[in-house]
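=== Per-residue structure ===
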Amino acid sequence: MSSTADSTSTTPPSAEDTGNLIVLARQAILDEKRAVFGYELFDRSTAANTHTAASDAALLFNALCYAGSEALSGKKIVFINCTHESLAGGHLELIHPEKVVLEVPTFAADATPEQIAQLLPTLQALRTRGFRLAFSQDVLRRAYANWLPLASFIKLDMLAIKPELIEPLVKYVRTNSQATLIAEKVETAEQHERMAALGVKLFQG
């Protein structure tokens, strides 16, 4: 199974540099019947070389202003990658929380417990405002125990997890959280069938 990203290229009407294209791409997240559940948005502009709080705000602004109404005001859920800094950004005031899932990165492996704990109030505030949060399988580590109850979605990277660990991880998520699992980077029918047999209902190729 594989879902490729489609993209929309637009140029802001007020842009002084008309050669500076804004390239928004989206990758479908499919349910077990291969119907589209939602889309993950990406900024693939030539100027977007790094993922920063500013690029997060630009991605959302460009999606709202230049990609048409379907991206954020249609019926599908939109997943947007965030930095820790952008989670407190004012740009999130522009959107309805029920339409967006914020993908929250974990810290580097050398992060201290204090660093991880410092972000917890921000995540709790976002949940209180109605935003749903998505995490990678790294949130299942002991250091992130206080984050786990806040997860609405957890993505399991099929290329990063040893095959023998997949079933125990699925069971752990079911036992210790209310999160919906998404099998990510699903590249073969066998992977899809295995995850479906474990009860996973959302897939991202």
Summary: Confidence is low (pLDDT under 50) at residues 7-19. Strands lie at 6-10, 22-31, 36-43, 77-81, 100-103, 132-136, 151-157, 180-184, 202-204. The CA atoms of residues 157 and 184 lie 5 Å apart.
